[in-house]
Amino acid sequence: MSAEDLASESAEPAQAAVTVRDLQIEVADTRTAVVTDIAFEIAPGEVLGLVGESGSGKTTVGLALLGHARRGLVIAGGSVLLGGRDILALSDEQLRRLRGSVVSYVPQDPASSLNPALRVGLQLREVLEAHVGERDGGGAGRADHSARIAEIMREVALPDDPRFLRRYPHELSGGQQQRIGLAMAFANRPRLIVLDEPTTGLDVTTQAHVLSTVRELARLHDVAALYVSHDLAVVATLARRVAVMYAGRIVELATAEALFSSAGHPYTRRLIGAIPRLTGGRSLLGIPGHAASPGNRPPGCSFAPRCSMRIEQCEQEIPALRRVSADHMVRCIRAEEVLTQEQRRIGDPIDMPAAEDLAALRLDSVVASYGRLEVVHSVSFSLAAHECLALVGESGSGKTTIARAIAGLHRNWTGKITLGDVPLQASARRRDADTRRRIQYIFQNPYGSLNPRRTVGDIIEQPLRLFGTASGRDASRRVAEMLERVSLTASYAARYPDQLSGGERQRVAIARALVCDPAVLVCDEVTSALDVSVQAAIVELLGNLQRDLGLSMLFITHNLPLVRSIAQRVAVLHEGVIAEMGDAAQVLGTPGQPYTRQLISDTPSLETAIAEVGLGEPPVDAASAS
Predict the structure, then answer these.
(1) Exposure letters 176-205 (e unless 16+ CB within 10 A, then b)
(2) Which of 403, 424, 512, 513 fits a 20 to 30 Å CA distance from 484?
């Protein structure tokens, strides 16, 4: 059965807001397929989740729904039908008028999507004025723009008063910036909206507000939404149907209920098994191996080299995306057998190693400020050798400020920070080389922390040269070893950051921090940009380093379920003060403070989604769990 036939049968075409058929995107120079055989529909008011590992082609498909391809790629075939028109057949001028009025896009980074030189109210007004009258019901008269702006600001739960609208983007929090982005996307009441990881990097409370806004706006205005994400827990709570991509193809398409209760593809089962759980600390297991890049994909099933259920036939032909039930399609020749597999979780219960009595790092009455604004108020805690302490809280609670003070990147603080028995100077420039080596920092945003003019090998080798740890062949060998340890290969050393996906860039940043054997590792939201399988591999790596090397970690995160799989203790920070601190299982299992309970309530979790639809335990490929 062709992809077009499948697209015609998987929903009622007459009711679909957008229909994608046989979408093919290739590298312009070599005509190598990047994504192929893509077919799905989205109904008005429906949210379709599109998930998969980094490099699977999710964003490439999302951009194609706007008639756009990234530089170096070309849309080689297929159709995207929206309101009776094929978007891929339109001219550049027609696409320009279409984007923002009939189809809208919300990118991952809200800060880069807003003009820093224009006030947010003016940016909203420009969106409306650019598309006046371009679709029925979408373009109010110019005199009505102020009323429409006030309406959409209320819809995204932001103030509509003139003072707020006169702010610049840098005067807003990350969550507020993202909601402004949503307001701009929904301003002209489009038929379709593509959301590309819109909650990555947001704390759980802000994320909950943004997800609620997306859900309500799509329902209220009958907008079809494609939600691109690597966070399956978020997709489970938001989307009605989910499409799973691997190596440029959809390998499974089903309702969220069917997918999370009985996945039919081994890859999907491994993804679900890698999701961290709030209800218990289990080891997280990534998927061994790497997805093949375009041009290097095997002749048969692309997942076969990493699949524990592969047979000879899997390596000979590409499986068709076929129906296994009325609302469930799978691209696997053994789908029926996979569906009968025992449904249990990957990963053994974690026996957290006991922390040593000696404190590797201690903070005593630390007060940190920006100018006259005090943001951290007399914070004290200790980090023991072999211990991972998770620091959680909303954006603006002071987590990153504390981390930067420890690393010597924020100098405006008082109190005392001690590394072992050595008091630290406020500025990293005033600390000796060995002290700087012993404290390494991994930043949240790998796009800003890696030098685009240096190769990956140079980036990772730089700390070795700086601290005189290794040089020449020895340095190259250590770089290659570290790349392997963070689930990359030695061949990545010759690449530049712009040749890597976001997840690959973050793994390079982690390798750079680990290569000089630090004593304390400060991890600032290091997994927020990673898909769940890579996140599991990184968490497993960090856990092994903690146990094997006596590494102490301050792990800053908004992913509360992840805390149970890596941290012995957790400190909950609220408005610059530690609201609650203690054993991770106890604090997250039976929180004592209302603020902690609210954080847990706002956290998207697979357990919550399962409870809401009455599902059993999510499935995991039993063979691959061994």
Answers:
(1) bbbbbbbbbbbbbbbbbbbbbbbbbbbbbb
(2) 403
